[in-house]
Design goal:
By secondary structure, the protein is an alpha+beta fold. The protein contains 17 helices and 21 strands. It has a 10-stranded mixed β-sheet, with helices on both faces. A hairpin with a 6-residue loop joins strand 4 and strand 5.
Length: 516
C-alpha cells in the first residue's frame, strides 16, 4: 500500500473532473459541501479508487447531513467529511432516531466471496470464545431451518430432472433464493433477541446480500444483480455496521478457486451498489490482500469507534497528555484517534452522581423526542478505555478547526462585545425554551463559544444537561412538561446572575481564572 496522500490526490483529481470542489482542506481532513443528490457520485469515486489501489476505508453516517469517510494507513489516517446542503431538519431528526434504534442491534454481517478471509480475519481479531460474542454462518442459519429442510428435498429432485445432474447446495440456493431469504428473515428475530436481551455481539459470515445476486454459483453464467433486487432489499433488515472484505480476483482465486475473475469483480461492485441503495450507518471496506495485522488494526479502529472492545489489549489508550479539563467527577480527554471528538470519563472512585449515565440517558431522551441538537455537542455513546467505560462527544471547534474557547473565557477577556453576548444569550434562551431542554449546571465554563464564520459566533452547551443526580426530579424533567418549563426558567435566572457577575469582573479587570 502506498502513502495515503497518493490516494487522496487521485480522489481529488477525479472529483475535480466531476466538478466537485473542496470546502476546506487541512493536513488530515478534507471537507466537501455538496447537495444530497451528488453524495453517491462522490462515494462511488472513493470506492472505485480505494478498491482499485487496495486501500481500506470506512463510511460513517451517524448524522444524516454529515458523512465521514476514513481512509486508513500505517501512519496517519485521512478523513473526508461531506456536509450535505439544504437538508430538511425533520429528515435529520428522524434519521437520528433511526441511528439510535439500529445501534442497539449489535448484528454485524461480514460479506465477501469465498476465499477472501472472513473467518481468518474475525477469529484472529476477536476471541471466538469471548462470552459476549456470537459468530454465525448465514448458510448454516438458513439450512438448519424447518422451512428449508421441508422444501429442499423436493426442490433438489425437481432440479435434478431439469439440470440432468444433482445440483450443489449453493446452486440450489442460488435458484431458490426466495426460500433462503425467507428462512433468514424467520431466524433474524432470534439474532435480535441475542443482541437486545442477552447483550451479545453477533457477527454473521455472509448475509442476505449474496442472494440478491444471480448465478454466483454457476461458473458458466455471468453474475448479475437480480431483476427486482431493489424491491427485495426493502424487506431485508437494516443493520448498523457492514464489513465488506475484498481483494484482487487473482488473490481470492489462489485461496479458493470457486468463482471466475469476472464474478469476483461483479461481487465487489454489486455489494457497494446494494450499500448505496440501502446504506448501513457504518460501512467498512477491508482489502485482505494487505497484511493481516493491518486489516486487524482497521477492524479494531472502527469497532472501537462504534463501541466494541472485546480485549483489553485493544482498548482505547487514554493518558494525561490527552487531558483537556477536569471537573469534580469527570475528566475530559482528546480522543486518541479522532481530534474532532472528546472522551468524558468518570475518575471519582467513591460515591458520585453518575454524570456519564445521566448525560447518556438525557441525550437519548432528546434524540428520541426529535429535539433540535444544534446548540449541544452530540453524544456517540460508550466506548471502552484503559481507564474504564467512557462517553464520546463532539469536540467544539472554530470554523478553521482550532479549539473553541468557553463562553466564560470570551466574556472575561472581552473577545466579543456586550451587544453580541446579549444576542447570543437571547438565542440560547429561546432555543432551550423552544426545545424544552434543561441546562441545570449553569456554569459559564459549560458553554463554549465557537467562531462559526469570521466575526460570527454561536453558543454550544458541552456539559451540565438534564440533571445533577439521578432520582425523582430527573424523572419529572423528562415526563412533566410543566415542571420542565418551570425548571428551565429557574435555572436561566441563576445562570444570568452568574453571567452578570462575570461581566462585572471583566469590567473591573478581575478576570476569573479559566484556561478554556
Amino acid at each position: 500500500m502506498h502513502s495515503v496522500d497518493s490516494i487522496i490526490q487521485k480522489i481529488l483529481v477525479k472529483l475535480a473532473k466531476k466538478e466537485f470542489s473542496f470546502y476546506k482542506y487541512d493536513d488530515n481532513t478534507i471537507t466537501f459541501s455538496i447537495t444530497e443528490n451528488r453524495l453517491n457520485t462522490l462515494l462511488k469515486v472513493i470506492f472505485k479508487l480505494c478498491s482499485k489501489e487496495s486501500y481500506c476505508f470506512s463510511i460513517i453516517r451517524e448524522e444524516y447531513d454529515l458523512v465521514e469517510v476514513i481512509i486508513y494507513s500505517n501512519s496517519n489516517d485521512k478523513k473526508i467529511k461531506v456536509l450535505l446542503e439544504d437538508v430538511d431538519k425533520k429528515v435529520i431528526l428522524e434519521y437520528r432516531k433511526k441511528v439510535l434504534k439500529y445501534k442497539k442491534y449489535k448484528i454485524y454481517p461480514i460479506i465477501g466471496p469465498d476465499g477472501v478471509g472472513k473467518t481468518t480475519l474475525l477469529t484472529n481479531t476477536f476471541n471466538p470464545k469471548e462470552k459476549s460474542l456470537i459468530y454465525k454462518r448465514f448458510k448454516k442459519i438458513v439450512r438448519r431451518s424447518i422451512i428449508y429442510n421441508i422444501s429442499y428435498p423436493i426442490n433438489k429432485y425437481l432440479l435434478k430432472k431439469k439440470l440432468g445432474r444433482k445440483p450443489e447446495k449453493d446452486q440450489h440456493d442460488d435458484i431458490h433464493y426466495m426460500l433462503v431469504i425467507l428462512a433468514g428473515l424467520l431466524y433474524y428475530p432470534y439474532l435480535v433477541y441475542n443482541s437486545l436481551v442477552k447483550k451479545k455481539i453477533v457477527f454473521i459470515d455472509r448475509f442476505f446480500n449474496d442472494y440478491l445476486l444471480e448465478n454466483i454459483s454457476f461458473l458458466d453464467k455471468k453474475t448479475t444483480l437480480r431483476k427486482g433486487w431493489k424491491n427485495i432489499l426493502r424487506y431485508i433488515p437494516t443493520i448498523y455496521w457492514t464489513i465488506h472484505l475484498d481483494a484482487k480476483a487473482k488473490i481470492i482465486l489462489e485461496r479458493k478457486d470457486e468463482l471466475k475473475k469476472r464474478d469476483v469483480k461483479k461481487y465487489r461492485k454489486a455489494n457497494f451498489k446494494i450499500y448505496l441503495q440501502k446504506p448501513s450507518i457504518v460501512y467498512t471496506y477491508i482489502n485482505t490482500a494487505l497484511e493481516l495485522s493491518f486489516c486487524q488494526n482497521v477492524l479494531l479502529k472502527i469497532s472501537r469507534r462504534i463501541g466494541i472492545a472485546l480485549s483489553d489489549e485493544f482498548l482505547y489508550q487514554i493518558n494525561d497528555d490527552l487531558l483537556i479539563a477536569k471537573g469534580g467527577e469527570r475528566a475530559c480527554y482528546l480522543h486518541p484517534e479522532d481530534n474532532t471528538k472528546v472522551i468524558k470519563s468518570v475518575f471519582s472512585k467513591g460515591s458520585h452522581n453518575n454524570q456519564n449515565k445521566l448525560e447518556y440517558i438525557y441525550m437519548n431522551y432528546l434524540k428520541n423526542k426529535k429535539k433540535d441538537l444544534s446548540h449541544i455537542t452530540n453524544c456517540y455513546g460508550y466506548i471502552k478505555t484503559n481507564i474504564g467505560k467512557a462517553l464520546v462527544f463532539d469536540r467544539v471547534l472554530n470554523y478553521d478547526n482550532t479549539p473553541a474557547k468557553s463562553f466564560r473565557y470570551m466574556v472575561a477577556n472581552k473577545l466579543i462585545s456586550l451587544d453580541e453576548q446579549k444576542k447570543l444569550l437571547d438565542e440560547l434562551k429561546k432555543y432551550l425554551e423552544d426545545n424544552e431542554i434543561l441546562f441545570v449546571d449553569t456554569s459559564l465554563t459549560n458553554l463554549f463559544c465557537p467562531q462559526i464564520q469570521e466575526d460570527k459566533y454561536k453558543i454550544i452547551i458541552v456539559d451540565g444537561l438534564g440533571a445533577k443526580r439521578m432520582g425523582l426530579k430527573f424523572w419529572l424533567y423528562r415526563n412533566s412538561k410543566l415542571y420542565t418549563k418551570y425548571k428551565i426558567k429557574r435555572q436561566w435566572e441563576k445562570f444570568m446572575v452568574m453571567y452578570k457577575k462575570d461581566v462585572k469582573r471583566a469590567e473591573l479587570g478581575q478576570r476569573p481564572f479559566t484556561r478554556l
